[in-house]
Amino acid sequence: MADFRAFLAAASLSLFAAASPARAQTPATENIQIGLSTDHVSITAGFSGADLTIFGSLENADPRVARQGRYDIVVVLEGPARPVVVRRKDRVLGIWINLESETFENVPVSYSVATTRPLQDVTDPNSYKQLSLGAANIYMQPADDGDSPATIQEFTAALRERKTATGLYSVNVGGVQFLSQNLFRATVRLAPNVPVGTHKARAFLFKSGLFIKESSAQLEIRKSGFEQSIFRVAHDFSFLYGVFAVSLAMLTGWLGRLVFRKD
Amino acid sequence: MGIYLPIAEISVNIFVLLAMGAAVGFLSGMFGVGGGFLITPLLIFYNIPPAIAVATGANQVIASSFSGALSHVKRGTLDFKLGGVLLAGGIVGSTGGIFVFGFLRRLGQLDLFISLLYVVLLGTVGGLMLVESVNALRATRSGAAPVLKKSGQHNWIHRLPLKMRFRASKLFVSVIPVLGLGAGIGFLSSIMGVGGGFIMVPALIYLLKVPTNVVIGTSLFQIIFTSAYTTLVHATTNQTVDVMLAFLLMAGGVAGAQYGAKAGQRLRGEQLRALLALLVLAVAFRLAIDLFVTPPSLYSLSGVDPT
């Protein structure tokens, strides 16, 4: 039941690009487009993770470069940013206790990447850094600048490691496929605990390792269904919710006695 | 069959929860305890976040203690006045507990504190109970008459001021220890998600010398209200009560409790207590292991509370 597939429709196919007379003299720069057919996706409460497919097009592609497979595309779906506390356990008298902690501002809750080829084959680390592309290159702002760089580095690494381990940060190598010279399809993974909120989809085009163009679109992920209503009531009308929980317990206790009474 | 818990935000197996509720209900019916001290650790073992396990455990305790208290009202073995005074203390203790709960959660030490409290409390109560019941078993086997504690003997508690008469319990005692006991149980209820019957019952019998026949009913009466209050406050301040989870546990629990009560009548008191002691110790031991074993990841992430 968790299977849902949001097809984010192909954007304008650049049919006129090939017919353009100007192309013969100076090759026009390539352009990349991703289009979303919908601005929101609803996931049900039983959602256990899924693949999200994004279609996009490559305009003014040079057929020669395309044939040699030297166009690379990296698609990122980045979740809303929130502050996060990272805690480290240390052994005190044999017991593992949370001791050190570091708070980071505005960490993307999720970060799913799809690429045509392994990231290290697409371009060099410096370009990634300049584009702040990839989970390893997102800048995480510590709330307390006074901490030593070594500590901050350690906790930043731990933050990335935990996010990857829980599936919130993922890389799908080969997740972007060319369907034709101009049309591509990107499959990014949504973790079961994908956060609700505004997600930003971005596509980066590289030609022979050089960054050419970027295109982005926004997507709202919402939860729907009965369980979500409970969650909302618990947060918005928490006192009434508590009264309901207590009444339900008393009713169950009373009914249980009526039904199963043995004395 | 999987079901998604709206507050815990994880998918769980519906039958595992029903069975868990039924098993704990059976044991609680058999031993005459609420079962909160078993439910909360079991939920933690089942990967429910401790904060939610505690608040939901308190919610589940209401159902079992309400159903138990009803039969005591019918039999007239419930001292409303004593229960009321215990409750007054309970509300104060519970409020304090909720405050400590939220504070520890912000510090990131809540999970540790819950586990430690469980290990210490269950270890102590289980150990004492085991020693007592093994001695009793040995005494009956050797044919000696069980040594009864001399009743009517007054200890320091009976010398405290502000005395009050509790007619149903045939008791004339200071309200200070009664309020204190209620407050202590209320505190544990909000931090551990337990009703506290496993502490309340021996305390009422041995410390306040309340007649055994009114102890369980009165303890259940006070537990209903303390855990109802705890549930309400957890729901409003921490939003950690999961009704879906609580309902599944209750449904299994009330059914199991009635069968457990019947099964309990066939076992002798000392045997029952020895079994319960072993169970309590096993839970404490399992929780203790988790404190000492190196966790799979030393790092953990959590959101920042808006407060």
Can you give me a brief rundown of this structure?
With 263 residues, chain A is an alpha+beta fold. Chain A has seven helices and 14 strands. Chain A has helices at residues 16-19, 63-67, 119-122, 125-131, 149-165, 226-236, 238-260; strands at 7-8, 31-34, 40-44, 50-59, 71-78, 81-92, 95-108, 111-115, 141-142, 169-173, 176-178, 183-190, 197-207, 210-224.
Please identify which CATH superfamily of the largest domain in chain A we are dealing with.
Answer: Immunoglobulins
Mean pLDDT of chain A: 79
* Major sheet: arrangement of strands of chain A: 3-14-13-5-8-10
Number of strands of chain B: 5
Shape assignment of chain B: globular
InterPro entries (chain A): CHP02186-rel_TM
Signal peptide (chain A): 1-24
Pfam families (chain A): Alph_Pro_TM
Keywords (chain A): Membrane, Signal, Transmembrane, Transmembrane helix
List the helices and strands and how they pair.
The complex is a heterodimer of chains A (263) and B (307).
Chain A: E1 7-8, H1 16-19, E2 31-34, E3 40-44, E4 50-59, H2 63-67, E5 71-78, E6 81-92, E7 95-108, E8 111-115, H3 119-122, H4 125-131, E9 141-142, H5 149-165, E10 169-173, E11 176-178, E12 183-190, E13 197-207, E14 210-224, H6 226-236, H7 238-260
Parallel strand pairs in A: 1-4, 3-14, 8-10
Antiparallel strand pairs in A: 2-4, 4-12, 5-8, 5-13, 6-7, 7-9, 11-12, 13-14
Chain B: E1 2-5, E2 10-13, H1 14-31, H2 36-45, H3 50-75, H4 80-107, H5 110-141, E3 163-166, E4 171-174, H6 175-192, H7 197-207, H8 212-237, H9 243-264, H10 269-292, E5 299-303
Antiparallel strand pairs in B: 1-2, 3-4
Helix pairs in contact in B: 1-9, 2-3, 3-6, 3-8, 3-9, 4-6, 4-8, 5-10, 6-8, 7-8
